[in-house]
Amino acid sequence: RLRCVSLLIASQAFGFSPFVRRQVKQVPYILPDIRGGSFQTRMTSKTVEDDKYVWLEDVEAEKCLDFAKSSNDKCLQALGDPKDGPTYDRVLSVLESEDRIPHVSSYGRDEAGERILFNFWRDKANPKGIWRKTTASEYKKEELKWEVVLDVDKLAEKDGISWVWKGASALARKRDPMSDNGRVVTRVLMNLSRGGSDATHLKEFDLLSEEFVPEGEAFILPEAKTRASFKSRDVLLVGSDFGPESLTDSGYPRTVREWARGTAVEDAPTVFEGEKTDVAVNGYIADERSFGGSLWQIHSRSITFYTSKYYMAKLTEDHLLPQSERPEGLPELEFKELDIQEDAEIDYVGNMLFISLRSDWTPKEGGKTYKTGSIIYCDWEKFLSEGKGGTDYKVLFEPTDRTAYEYMTCTKDYMIVSTMNNVKSKLHFYKIGDGGNSLTLVSEDSDPKIRDCSVRPIDAIESNEFWFTLSSYTQPSTLFLADAGKVEEPVESAEDKFIVTKLKQLPEQYDSSGLVVEQRMATSKDGTEIPYFIVMKEGVELNGKNPTLLYGYGGFEISLGPHYVATSGLAWLERGGVYVEANIRGGGEFGPSWHQAALKANRNKAYEDFIAVGEHLIESKICKPKTLAIRGGSNGGLLMGNMYIMRPDLFGAVHCAVPLLDMKRFNQLLAGASWMAEYGNPDTSDWEDFLYKYSPYHNIDESVESYPPMLVTTSTRDDRVHPAHARKMVKKLWDLGEGKDWPIYYYENIEGGHGGAADAKQSAFMTSLAYDFMFATLTKNAEAMD
Predict the structure, then answer these.
(1) What is the pLDDT confidence band of residue 39, given thresholds at 50, 70 and 90?
(2) Which positions ≥6 away from 125 have C-beta within 8 Å?
(3) Which one, 22, 233, 357, 692, has least CB within 10 Å?
(4) Is the dihedral of CA 622, 625, 630, 636 positive or negative?
């Protein structure tokens, strides 16, 4: 919950998401050199009017694919085929392991009353995956039985398309007359993409017959970045590529249509539309009747990545019918704009409206000002009828300098809120009372912990049970059955007393014996303390020779924190390496303020933070520049590109994955226009004022004799961050670096989307290619120190 359109795009966009007319003089940017002198990085906006590498933006042109294929050959000739290396087989075995936890979602109950649980699963025998189901009682067994509902490999073979599963969204049981009074989910909208791209094909699937709904009866849409949800069984709220003017400049839907079953989508009436310059629009149903609230239809405009407008109307059951079947005289829906700040986000439980603040807000004239990062709530209907000044507010969460809100979720009677304190996790339990009108804090963790914990309700309509998953850097994931009601029971131990039983545990995927996890602090250029986590062998020798991998992201308010990553463990830690994650500004580790501190003109703060962590590792004698590798993808790829350009002396190897690198044209490539709220608009004075300073593509310094070895990876099928960013940067480096010590390797996976790989084999290939490159480079450098 508390995920508006912009955050949905962010989750899709980043995990790991022309022509200068005149020359601008810029004072060189000075960064401290770890040797005690000063290393001067040339930061200039000098470009040429015609980008001679722009031809590489034609994604599937023959000459561009030839460039990619020949580059791949050169890369493997230089680095070796990772399939023959030390990590590929082990990474693949982890990705295809039968020991992984099969996480499930509830789809109601069968006729015997057993809860039905669905899971999507990939393994060696099913590389594209199977969608399968079991029962709750069966799921508790160590050796459980599954029933396959859809085999994606067989579907791909039948259709002759390399399908990649992108998930399914269910028809709400409460709004489905065929659900046997809400017993079971009967229909889903399934999303399948070609080769892993963000654009998907929409297909309706019947869970009773376990077949796709026949054409003519079904909701089916061709490839597009579609947003669709069931309004009712026979009505969709849908935005897609309906032709000219139906998409925003960012490539997402600009309109919402109400599409009735059995009609042509072209004839579906448009019920909402945004501006061409918006990031996206969306339409969906908020059905809070189970929590004592009302039935609402919500339309939203994501004006930028971080600003939105919301419009709401209360529905009756008759409004769920296709327009042709609604009774005569049924009043038209009256949408009201929600009078909140554009940078605020909303959520709702029962009749409570929750507002997440990204800036200070004083809703009542002369009244209290609520701080940035706070979560406040009020009476939903009163807010709409009387406005922001006519209702009272309560505070669910108020941040400090080192605390931040993460998420909230609900069971039948409880709200569970997750917060972070200095990048450590803490859970809070609230009782929902007064028919969905009040909250009472009934329990919370005594202290924040260095761990990753995930809370997912099993069925919020009828149960207080939830799935509780725990992991850390060195502890594999464990799945528990939990019950929020247990937090009010008197027990001796107050810690995690909601746990009912342990259900599944991932076996150790690598040897973590002797590893320790520490949280340390580096001091950035402006004096800000930057936390980072370091995982290493206890008693590691402080001789500067330890192969050290520093990972960073620093953007879009996305947080890094403790989590179990088996591939990093076996490909790096098990081989004696040191693994580090930096919580730099631009992320969400300390809430909106931490993110906003590195927006646009202040982007340098994220880069200064990352450099500070690297320097702190060196000062601590964990490593030296030649034994320090760095890695990042998407926005983290932009970080890598800037580290490569700004501080070639500080790093011994770089892996730059699915990156943004050309900040002059990023807004004209695929979804790039949606990120201008993060970076700035290069078609305005932003370019000359600050954007060119962190455009790696425009700041390659021809006078530098030696850049560190860098591996750049991307995917042809990435339709989020254009592969041209990587292609152009690499080609330019090759051309300018001819005869110099600029070792650059480039691999472009022909499939894979923004994740870089379409199946386990591709993922193992790309992962082992990167880790083997970095580890071999640092090991060789360490040996040369002797």
Answers:
(1) very low
(2) none
(3) 22
(4) positive
Smallest CA-to-CA distance from 24 within 44, 38, 41 is with: 44
* Residue the block writes with tokens 């081989």: 575
Q: Which residues contact 163 (CB under 8 A, 6 or more apart)?
A: 128, 152, 155, 156, 192, 193, 194
pLDDT of residue 758: 55
Give per-residue burial for 401-414: e unless 16+ CB within 10 Å, then b. Answer: ebbbbbebbbbbbb
- Each residue's pLDDT tens digit, 400-456: 999 999 999 999 999 999 999 999 999 999 999 999 999 999 999 989 999 999 999
Contact in structure between 622 and 543 (CB atoms under 8 Å): no
Separation of alpha carbons 645 and 638, rounded Å: 11
Q: Name the phi and psi angles at 116, rounded to 5.
A: -95, 125
| Residue 576 CB neighbours (<10 A) | 13
On whether the CB atoms of residues 168 and 175 are closer than 8 A, the answer is no
Question: In the chain, what is the straight-line distance between the N-terminal and C-terminal CA atoms, in Å?
Answer: 54
In sequence order, the β-bridge partners of residue 629 are 549, 653
Residue 10 to residue 596: CA distance in whole angstroms:
15
DSSP state of 208: T
Q: Are 347 and 312 in contact (CB under 8 A)?
A: no
Tokens 């031809």 found at: 55
Which H/E stretch holds residue 344?
none
Query: How remote is the C-alpha of 508 from its chain's centroid?
Result: 26
What sign does the CA torsion over 202, 208, 210, 216 have?
A: negative
Token readout for 412 is 């039948």
Mean pLDDT, all residues of the chain: 91
Instruction: Read off the tokens for 159.
Output: 């259709």
Residue 50: pLDDT band (50, 70, 90) is confident
Asked if 674 and 659 touch (Cβ cutoff 8 Å), the reply is no
Question: In 3-state terms, what secondary structure has residue 457?
Answer: strand
Known catalytic residues are: 634, 754
User: 536-548 burial by CB neighbour count: b if 16+ within 10 A, else e?
Assistant: beeebeeebbbbb
pLDDT at 21: 21
CA dist., res. 444 & res. 255, Å (int): 43
3-state secondary structure of 196: coil
Element at 762 (helix H, strand E): helix 760-785
Q: Which residues contact 155 (CB under 8 A, 6 or more apart)?
A: 163, 192
pTM: 0.88
Decide: helix, strand or coil at residue 601.
helix
Other beta carbons within 10 Å of 126: 18
Who's near 723: CB < 8 A, 6+ residues apart?
Answer: 59, 68, 714, 715, 716, 748
d(C-alpha 584, C-alpha 592), whole Å: 13
List pLDDT tens digits, range 583-597: 999 999 999 999 999
Rounded distance, CA 311 to CA 297, Å?
8
**242: CB partners within 8 A, 6+ apart:** 255, 257, 265, 266
Confidence of residue 760 (pLDDT cuts 50, 70, 90): confident
Q: Which are the contacts of 159, defined by CB distance < 8 A and separation ≥ 6? A: none
